[in-house]
Amino acid sequence: MERRNRNILIALIAVVIVAAVFSSFGLGFFGVTTPTITLPTPAPTESGAPGGVEQPQGERVEVTPDTVQSVIAALSRLESYSRMVVTTLEGESATATVWVDGGWTRADLTLPTGRTACTVVGDGTVWRWYDGDGRAVSWAADSSSMDVEGQRIPTYEDVLALNKEDITAAGYEDKEGSPCVYVEVAIPELGQTERYWVSAENGLLWYAETVVGEETVWSMSASLPEVPAPAGDFTLPDGTVLHTVGE
Predict the structure, then answer these.
(1) Fewest Cβ atoms closer than 10 Å to its Cβ: which of 20, 109, 111, 183?
(2) CA 52 to CA 34: how far, in whole Å?
(3) Residue 34, pLDDT score
(4) Tens-digit pLDDT profile for residues 126-143
């Protein structure tokens, strides 16, 4: 009898243990779902899977219309480089060579007419001349934009200046072989959609376009940058050196 009672006691203890384990781990399968923590999407890999962008500090953040400008602002950027930029407006293309160094920008834009407009922006001033001119005209720079003062060569700063309320889509995309942060902006009063792709590798504007309906009426694309910018490209036609690369 004593042995039987001991077996019953052991069985009861086992039942209690099983019930306790089930109440701790099993109720989630049958009861109300508990809140979960959604981890940020991993940074993009070579596969090009959509996701977040890893910031220089190592923090991964999701790219959404609310966060995209903060993500772009935090990207690491080249301080000295040169590259080619092609803009196309309604089928007519213009090619520019752009140099950037130490807060100075120069763009030589070859127009569809074949003439080249040279622009230097730096130290709060714009200098402009055309090929063959002996001197440049100058005026105060507009600090709110670095699109090389009207030559319609936008930069990532133009994306940062967009109204957040106008941003309709954002995320991560591969664009012509480069991992990019993508931004789409609707301009209903003009019936236009503007799209921008900022390189996640160097923080520079890689591609942009303006679409009306299904037609692309304007586009901008850039070549891979060469680092650093070559010396001697911040000089006026009269020989005045505005800036020395690396200083």
Answers:
(1) 20
(2) 26
(3) 27
(4) 999 999 999 999 999 875
Q: How confident is the model at residue 50 (pLDDT cuts 50, 70, 90)?
A: very low
Mean pLDDT of 111-132: 91
Q: Which of 223, 236, 56, 247 is nearest to 134 (CA)?
A: 236
Say whether pLDDT at 4 is over 60: no
* Beta carbons within 10 angstroms of residue 149's beta carbon: 18
**CA 72 from chain center: how many Å?**
5
Cβ neighbours of residue 164 closer than 8 Å, sequence gap 6 or more: 65, 66, 69
CB 120 within 8 A of CB 102: no
**By the 8 A CB rule, do 53 and 63 touch?**
yes
Cα–Cα distance for residue pair 42/52, rounded to 1 Å: 6
**Cα 155 from chain centroid (whole Å):** 10
- Would you say the C-alpha torsion 144, 199, 91, 81 has a positive or negative sign? positive
Cα dihedral 237, 241, 245, 247 in deg (nearest 10):
-170
Q: How far is CA 178 from the centre of its chain?
A: 11
Which candidate, 129, 90, 96, 123, places its Cα nearest to that of 110?
96
Under 8 Å CB-to-CB from 188, ≥6 apart: which residues? none
Give the span between the Cα atoms of 76 and 60, in whole angstroms. Answer: 14
Per-residue pLDDT at 32: 33
